[in-house]
Each structure stands twice: as C-alpha cells, then as structure tokens.
Amino acid sequence: MSVLMILAGFLFSAVAGYMAGLVGSSNNPISGVTIATILTSSLILLALMGKNSANGPVAAIMIGAVVCCAAAIAGDNLQDLKTGYIVGATPRSQQIMLMVGVIAAAIALPAILNLLNTAYGIGPESGREHPLQAPQANLMASVARGVFHGGLPWTMVYIGMGIGTAIIILDKIQEARKSEYRFPVLAVAVGIYLPFDLDSAVMVGGLVALFASWYVKRNKARAKPDHEAALGRSERAGLLFASGLITGEALVGILLALPIVIWERNIFDLHNQLPALVGFVALVGVCYWLYRSTTRSYTE
C-alpha cells in the first residue's frame, strides 16, 4: 500500500499541479485522478489479496484518499505560487503560508466533516431521510467494491467509454470548424453521473453565461477601452460572483448544521412554511444579479 501511495501520489500530484498551474485550480482533475488511482490500486490489490477480500476495497479507498489529498494540495499550492508570483510575493513567505494552509485544513476538515455527518448524514448508507449525497464518494466506493466483489456494471462502463469517445470526436470536429460551440467531454461526464438537483444548478449557471455572451456580441461597440480588455473584466466579474455563491452556499450549509447538532432540529427550516414561489423568485433574482454584474462590467 505504501509503495502504491508514493508512486501514484508522485505521478498524479505532478499532473494536478501542472494543470492547476497552467490553466487554473478549477481545472484540477481530482475526480479523474482519484478514480484512476482506485481502479488501478484495486486491480493490483486484487492480484495480491485475492477475490472477495474484505480489506481490499478499504485499502484501495485509503490509497485513493491519500492520492486525492496529494493532488488537491499540489493543485492548490501551484495556483497559490502562480498567484504569488504575479503579485510579487516572496518565495519564503509563500512557503510558510502554504504549510500553514495545509496544517489548518488538516485540523479543521475532520471537525467539519463530523459536524456535517451528525447534522445531515453523508451518503445513502447514513440512513437519513435527506443526506448529503456525495456522488463522487459513492462512485469511488462502487468501483472498489465492484473490482473485489463483482457486480461492477462493465456494460455501462463500456457504454460510457463509447459516449466519451464520440463526444471527443465531435469536439474535435467543432474545433476544426472553428465553431464557438464545443462538446467538452468532462462537462458531459459530470452531467451524467451527478444527481439532477446538482446538475440543474450547473445548467442554470451555464444559461446565464450563455445569455451574457450574447450580450457581449451585441455590444462590442460599447466596450471600454477595447473588446479584449472589457471581455476579461466581464469574465472576472462573473467568475468572482459565481465563486462567491459557491463558497457562500458551502459556508451557510456548515453554519446551518450547528443548530441541528445543538438542538437536534433545524430551526431555520422554511421548506414547509414558505411557498415554492418564494424560492423561485429568489433564484431568478440571483441569476439576474449575476447576469447584470457580468454585463455591466463589460460596458463600464
């Protein structure tokens, strides 16, 4: 296990760090890296431990967890180093704060995960009525169990491989045609395996981005000082706004877990007290606010 952890951690940390340093932390392929590690580790451990091993899936998950953390830290550190270089930070100060960040996360995350598990439950195995779904964790557990105990739906895996290949071919055709509409295979894959209540938020955000891009095309003459500068300003405004929504939702979810654990009930539960129309209006308002923030940054 230790040898597998070291080898996989070294290789995949390099991949994650390279992608984050080149493109950005949002393109860190942590899910793909972890799934590939778990599948490879499961096959190796299967040969060493034998079929139906009770400890095999757990060992594979442990290897995947270590590699996942290593890849996440590598991507985050490379992104921080890149940002620090741009703003002129000294390497010594950056290295100190990177170590502080890793230590602080290692201390805080177990407590937060325990809080969320106590308040909501994580995964369908928790037995809660509405647990946190953790689709990626369920997928990885299914891969590890399937290799050792059978039952892995290889037919669906092959179908997914075929769909992925077809989408990549279509994307290359669109690239050759210089079309602005592409077929990103990662987005399609995420849309297939994530639950619809999560996919729907991604879809709504994509529609807002599409409407904003249409606005940009229609108002190129109003860009100040020029189109490229205004486009970059608009994209940054939209990205910061959307990032704030994601971070805010996560922080609010953690804060709402506190009264559930303390008083064993959700004192902020308004689901049955307010009509669904209120939530719909709030959603439309946030989408319009995001759209206006992005488009206003283009013309100002």
Number of domains: 3
The helix content is over 70%
List the quaternary state of the chains: single chain
User: Could you give a short account of the major beta sheet?
Assistant: none
Uncertain runs are none
Question: Which shape, going by the Cα principal axes?
Answer: globular
Instruction: Determine the structural class based on helices, strands and strand pairing.
Output: mainly alpha
How do the helices and strands follow one another from N- to C-terminus? HHHHHHHHHH
Give the tally of β-strands: 0
Strand % is under 5%
What would you note in describing this structure?
With 300 residues, the chain is mainly alpha-helical. It folds into three domains: 1-151, no CATH class; 153-193, no CATH class; 195-300, no CATH class. Helix content is 78%, strand content 0%. The protein has helices at 2-22, 30-49, 56-87, 91-119, 135-149, 154-176, 185-193, 196-218, 227-263, 276-299.
Compact summary:
This protein is 78% helix and 0% strand. It is mainly alpha-helical.
Please give the structural blueprint.
Layout: H1 2-22, H2 30-49, H3 56-87, H4 91-119, H5 135-149, H6 154-176, H7 185-193, H8 196-218, H9 227-263, H10 276-299
Helix pairs in contact: 1-2, 1-3, 2-3, 2-5, 3-4, 3-5, 4-9, 8-10, 9-10
Keywords, separated by commas or semicolons:
300 residues, mainly alpha, 3 domains, 10 helices
